[in-house]
Design goal:
- The chain contains 22 helices and no strands.
- The chain is mostly helical.
- Helix 5 runs parallel beside helix 12 and helix 18 crosses helix 19.
- The longest helix is centred in the C-terminal third of the chain and has 40 residues.
């Protein structure tokens, strides 16, 4: 096989029919399991210890995929609640009764949400018209009501608090479940067909990777050949995660000069010593770069952020594909995007889908129907600005409450400004994309290449600059971030 053919095969493993046929055999399935276990073991041993037996069971009993993954989800759910209890000394002292109560409360709430989705036509009219509003209203009523309950001192109080800490993680997943009910697609579903994505054994964040019931059912492999294609695509993502991990390792070691596990001592002195963007903003380094070096730090931070997100997403989606769901990847070549809205769609796909599903579409369908420009603007602001802020407020509610009113505003102010810039950039990009429709552009030649490079560079500049107000740690103030931004242009 020629090098070109080998490269093509590595890019499209799941489209090679001969390879699909081999993987569809029992020996091929054993090879997939071995390769996946090996890749996961060297990436995260805890993940390998959970995914490996689940994958073996799914391979052996594909008809019981949902049940197997739901049982894995129960274990992950228990471990997550137990970890929350362990991290708080006051909670840990209340022991098993509090832990058991928390699991019963959360499990009961999830089952009640499932019954509501399955019997959606029998719900009160208000709930049928505004299911997501009612869901989040209940969440906030519970969270605010907790203020009247002592945090420690009784297992029942601790159990209620522990259960409430799960709400931000489950809110959007329950939202997808209710949307399935609203579309009348959950009527014949079973609880295990929902629970496995409510607390996924394959990993995830507050953003539901793989979305919810509708999308997962559509992408679930129905035949052995489909499952083999999904598994090959999953292995490809795990391999890519290793590749991007190596790229991140090189940036940390040879660009920033950070200590990296496994780096030979002879190479540890060869680096550019470029400070991290967060260190420059916070004044945590004695290095005073020229504007060129400061700009370099800004762009390297964009690359680093993209690599971290790609690695996490590739592992999660890779596991989901190995388990038989051929879902779209979370991060897909965003640094090659030629428009702001294209980058937004490729950078964090499932977060974008969350904002579009729960904020953009409802606003677009409800307001300014006779004014297209204002309608698009309102929907974009609802998603990329208001929805973005609301998601992070709900996700970080514990930290915001602990910080107090002044501290919470200090933490939120950079996020609000970042979301505003992002929403405006997406709206302008959408307008420009509309104007470009129907126009013909050169596809080949030097001019076409220059045009693509110009567009990609513009996207890099936009996202690298607004990321100044989004970079961790959150304690960096709005004033510090803005001062650094102005310094890039020689304004002090």
């Amino acid at each position: 096989m020629t090098p070109t053919a080998l490269l093509t095969l590595s890019r499209q493993l799941h489209e090679d029919e001969r390879l699909v046929a081999v993987v569809s055999t029992p020996w091929g399935q054993a090879a997939v399991w071995s390769a996946a276990t090996l890749l996961l073991f060297f990436y995260d041993r805890a993940a390998a210890a959970l995914i490996s037996p689940l994958l073996a069971l799914v391979i052996g009993f594909p008809a019981h995929r949902h049940l197997i993954l739901s049982l894995g989800g129960v274990y992950v759910f228990y471990r997550a609640v137990a970890e929350r209890q362990r991290l708080d000394p006051g909670w840990a002292s209340d022991g098993w009764p509090a832990l058991l109560l928390a699991m019963v409360l959360v499990g009961g709430g999830l089952y009640a949400c499932y019954r509501a989705a399955r019997s959606y036509g029998q719900l009160p009219r208000l709930v049928q018209r505004h299911p997501l509003f009612v869901l989040h209203a209940i969440i906030w009523i519970v969270l605010v009501g907790l203020l009247a309950i002592p945090r420690h001192g009784h297992p029942m109080a601790t159990g209620v608090w522990l259960a409430a800490t799960c709400f931000p993680f489950l809110a959007w997943r329950c939202g997808y479940m209710l949307l399935a009910g609203q579309r009348r697609r959950a009527a014949d579903s079973r609880f295990r067909e929902h629970f496995f994505y409510l607390w996924p054994a394959y990993g995830g964040t507050h953003v539901p990777y793989g979305k919810g019931y509708d999308y997962l059912q559509q992408t679930m492999a129905a035949t052995m050949a489909d499952r083999a294609r999904a598994q090959l695509a999953g292995l490809k993502l795990l391999i890519l995660a290793w590749f991007w991990q190596g790229a991140l390792w090189m940036i940390n070691g040879f660009v920033h000069g950070l200590p990296v596990d496994g780096m030979p001592p002879a190479l540890s002195g060869y680096h550019l010593d470029l400070p991290r963007l967060s260190a420059l903003i916070g004044g945590e380094t004695t290095f005073h770069p020229s504007p060129i070096w400061a700009w370099a730090s800004v762009f390297v931070e964009l690359i680093t952020r993209t690599l971290k997100l790609a690695i996490t997403g590739h592992v999660i989606i890779g596991c989901l594909r190995l388990l038989g769901f051929h879902v779209f990847r979370n991060t897909y070549k965003p640094l090659l995007s030629q428009s702001v809205v294209e980058f937004w769609n490729r950078f964090y796909y499932y977060f974008k889908e969350l904002l579009v599903e729960f904020f953009f579409f409802p606003a677009y369908a409800s307001y300014f129907k006779t004014r297209p420009g204002l309608r698009l603007f309102a929907a974009t602001m609802a998603a990329a600005f208001a929805g973005n802020i609301y998601y992070h407020v709900l996700r970080d509610i514990g930290h915001l409450a602990a910080a107090g009113l002044t501290g919470a505003w200090s933490l939120l102010c950079p996020r609000i400004f970042y979301s505003l810039l992002l929403a405006l950039g997406i709206y302008v990009s959408l307008l420009r994309e509309r104007k470009r429709r129907g126009r013909t552009w050169p596809q080949d030649g030097p001019w076409a290449m220059c045009l693509r490079i110009k567009r990609i560079a513009g996207v890099w500049v936009f996202y690298a600059l607004i990321h100044i107000w989004n970079v961790d740690p959150p304690r960096l103030t709005f004033a510090q971030r803005t001062e650094f931004f102005l310094s890039l242009f020689g304004i002090r």
